[in-house]
From TrEMBL:
The keyword Kinase does not apply. It comes from Nibrella viscosa. Gene3D superfamilies: NADH:ubiquinone/plastoquinone oxidoreductase, chain 3. Its main location: membrane. Signal peptide: none annotated. Keywords: Cell membrane, Membrane, NAD, Quinone, Translocase, Transmembrane, Transmembrane helix, Transport. Coiled coil: none annotated. Belongs to the complex I subunit 3 family. This is NADH-quinone oxidoreductase subunit A. The keyword Kinase does not apply. The lineage of its organism: Bacteria, Pseudomonadati, Bacteroidota, Cytophagia, Cytophagales. It is found in: Cell membrane; Membrane. It catalyses: a quinone + NADH + 5 H(+)(in) = a quinol + NAD(+) + 4 H(+)(out).
Amino acid sequence: MEATTYLPSDYLPIVIQLGLALAFIVVTMIVTHLIGPTRHSEKKDEPFESGIPVQGDARTPISIKYFLIAIVFVLFDVEVIFLYPWAVNFKSLGMLGFIEMILFMGLLLAGFYYIIRKGVLKWE
């Protein structure tokens, strides 16, 4: 087989499209800034949160439990994504694929057992 060589001119359409996209973004931001209203007032500059009055400071500390549960959720949610391609290709992977998935699920369940034993999911 003969290797295909690409010249820099072959990438010209991609560079042009990227340049046009960036130019569109910059021009749109400049134009909206220039033609947009600039009236300021105390009520208008106040943050709006779905009609709920603002209370306290946004910098108040949040319990670490919230972040632990969020990270655990993302971790196990992403791991479940790996089950779909395995299920689609189950027959073609054969016994080795099945054993690998049993190992994968075993490690996943071991991690889940560990976080339960550590009490990460217990909310106070």
